Known about the structure:
The chain is α/β, with parallel strands linked by helices. The protein has helices spanning 9-15, 41-52, 91-100, and strands at 20-25, 29-31, 35-38, 54-60, 72-73, 82-85, 103-106. It has one domain. The strands form two sheets. A four-stranded parallel β-sheet has the order 1-4-6-7, with helices on one face.
Amino acid sequence: MHDGGVFGANAMSFAENFSTDCAVLSAAGIDAINGFTLFDLEEAHFTRRIIERTASRIVAADASKFGLEAPVAAGGPARIGHLVTDADPPEPIRAAAERWSTRIHVAP
Length: 108
């Protein structure tokens, strides 16, 4: 699946120029065991680099991502401080988020 994102060596080089206060990231899947996952390996590398270079990390994902498992981990789920979504996650994900110290925000 291709979502129109551009990743790879040029994007990684670009990201090296910045250290940010906040990053809003995406996820293709969110599950209680693997955390936040992606389909594209290059996107995962880019996401991990951004996670390393930012102080506050937010994942914005709609409820359709709950329980889905994409093949590539986006990085340690405990490094994500906030999950913004459109519905309450199922209990296994809610419990995992508590273990990760990830705050869940359901947008109205």
